[in-house]
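Quick one:
INPUT:
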């Protein structure tokens, strides 16, 4: 494994201010960028392993229920949430992400 230089990481990740994550569903689609939806990703947790065990990532998606109409927004989000679709997660600081899960 290559050695990491703390000063380079400090510059790359904007002094380690504002930790953030990005979740891409169905390839490179970001559901939070969809202007027709008000989805937010909360409680992002990634557990990586270097063993033969599988890594796991979990997250919550808020804004998928219309309380006025009393219905879930299934038709609008199914392009992101079909079983078996690829998930890609990046973690970092201040809009500088590194992919950590696929």
């Amino acid at each position: 494994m290559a050695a990491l230089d703390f000063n380079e990481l400090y510059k790359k990740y904007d002094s380690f201010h504002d930790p953030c994550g990005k979740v891409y569903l169905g390839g490179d689609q970001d559901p939070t960028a969809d202007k027709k939806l008000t989805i937010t990703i909360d409680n992002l947790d990634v557990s990586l392993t270097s063993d033969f065990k599988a890594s796991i990532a979990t997250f919550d998606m808020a804004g998928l229920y219309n309380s006025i109409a009393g219905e879930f927004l299934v038709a609008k989000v199914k392009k992101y949430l079909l079983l078996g679709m690829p998930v890609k997660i990046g973690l970092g600081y201040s809009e500088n992400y590194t992919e950590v899960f696929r």
